[in-house]
Fold this sequence. Notes:
The protein is built from nine helices and eight strands. It is an alpha/beta fold. It has two domains: 1-28 and 123-218, P-loop containing nucleotide triphosphate hydrolases (Rossmann fold); 32-121, P-loop containing nucleotide triphosphate hydrolases (Rossmann fold, 3-Layer(aba) Sandwich). A five-stranded parallel β-sheet has the order 2-6-1-7-8, sandwiched between helices. A three-stranded antiparallel β-sheet has the order 3-4-5. Helix 2 (33-46) packs across helix 4 (91-100) and helix 7 (148-161) crosses helix 8 (168-184). It is globular, with a radius of gyration of 16 Å. The two termini are 15 Å apart.
Amino acid sequence: MGYNIAIDGPAGAGKSTIARLVAKEKGFIYVDTGAMYRALAVYFLDRGIAPEDTCKIAEVCKSAHVSIQYENDVQQVYLNGVNVTGRIREEEVGNMASKSSSIPEVRAQLFKLQRDLAKECDVVMDGRDIGTNILPDANVKIYLTASVETRAKRRYLELEEKGETCNLEEIKKDIEDRDYRDMNRKIAPLKKAEDAVVVDSSDMTIEQVVEKIISLCK
């Protein structure tokens, strides 16, 4: 079995950035589970399916195949052979992913791929239920969080840099809503694993967070 590092936490906590840097530092494979769910969300949106239409989502997700590849050390996400990397960070896609990820058929579609990869390789995997559900026997478990205000400001600056019009209060409300959905869904809700180490990045630099996680690896 590979050496596994599981990083869980709420939206906007910086999981993807931190996981990617830890994987690079350790020479591990970074498995962006959020990107995989977002790719499925792209599939649903392109078919005009509403987030509330759980029956339709459960039906069509079986026709979607998501894979992660690395090209020139950069992660690329493919949906049925088409590169959708440039679309998965769109706000609409994130909201669909947050809602559709609680559907059993959606989770089952990606579960086996994620766990098999962790058995075969040294990986850093981030998401909402990695330490509690996907990789319960991970060597290192991290619960990465930050205040709602900090996460909203980070997202605001990110969108502003892209030239997109945004409202800080609306982003904050969206984050609060997503936190509630993720923490209260019936299947694999977001929560800290009992043996996870909490890392609050509100007042930490990216480098400090990476250093902290690396120090926990044996």
